[in-house]
Specification:
11 helices; mainly alpha; 0% strand; MetI-like fold
């Protein structure tokens, strides 16, 4: 019990003093996860919209099954395949991306993409057909009709994006494999917690855990807000 109390005390001091090492890890974590989320969203939302709205989309059910399966991709498997691709003997080894923040961003983008695209598909498919009919009746072009439908589903899509961020912020397997957990370069919150726990430095591990829990709380609050907004507009997010 004394170990826990002492660890919490030191962790609290690290947080309120804005310890440079601690803040560096937190900022790098946010930069990696937010960049990956941006990439995953930029690719995932159009993909979900394309599969949902294109009337003659080839192999639609197959594509959806692939996306739904990819939502549960084990991060360590993603990290393993990326490691093989980016290692010196791999086909992309000449790029020198292994053990860099860029490699971690690529790994997390792969994890974010199927979540955003699959949930965006669900959000867009829940928009009442009358929205499309009304847009077409008013003479909207196909692209304008698509934008109108996505706009109607925006709260549910934002909830999908926040759900993806929640997974990325807590991910450890892939970033540990392709990032290498290098101090000042690729050490993020989750990998630092693993390292500090192994070292027996529980104060920093607890401090980082508190920060991670705070981020998760903010994500859940945002997810609840967007879900409620989507629910009031008649979507499936409740």
């Amino acid at each position: 019990m004394d170990l826990i109390i002492e660890g919490l005390r030191k962790a609290f001091l690290l947080i309120i003093s804005l310890d440079a090492g601690l803040m560096g890890i937190v900022l790098l974590s946010l930069r990696v996860s937010l960049t990956a989320l941006l990439i995953g969203t930029a690719l995932g939302v159009p993909t979900g919209a394309l599969i949902c709205l294109k009337e003659k989309f080839p192999l639609r059910h197959f594509a959806l099954n692939i996306l739904n399966t990819a939502m549960g991709l084990p991060p360590v498997v993603v990290g393993l395949f990326l490691y093989l691709l980016l290692s010196r003997r791999g086909p992309l080894g000449a790029l020198g991306l292994l053990y860099t923040a860029s490699a971690m961003i690529i790994a997390q983008s792969i994890l974010a993409f199927p979540i955003v695209s699959s949930l965006s598909y669900a959000a867009i498919s829940a928009v009442p057909p009358i929205i499309r009919q009304a847009a077409m009746t008013l003479g909207a072009a196909p692209f304008q009709t698509t934008i109108a439908i996505i706009k109607e589903a925006r709260y549910a899509i934002l909830a999908a994006v926040m759900a993806a961020f929640g997974r990325l912020s807590a991910e450890v397997g892939a970033v540990l494999i392709v990032g290498g957990n290098i101090a000042g370069r690729t050490r993020v919150i989750t990998s630092a917690i693993v390292l500090e726990t192994d070292k027996g430095d529980f104060s920093e591990a607890i401090a980082l855990g508190v920060v991670l829990l705070s981020i998760s709380l903010c994500v859940n609050i945002a997810l609840y807000f967007f879900s409620r907004r989507g629910h009031t507009k008649g979507y499936l997010w409740a």
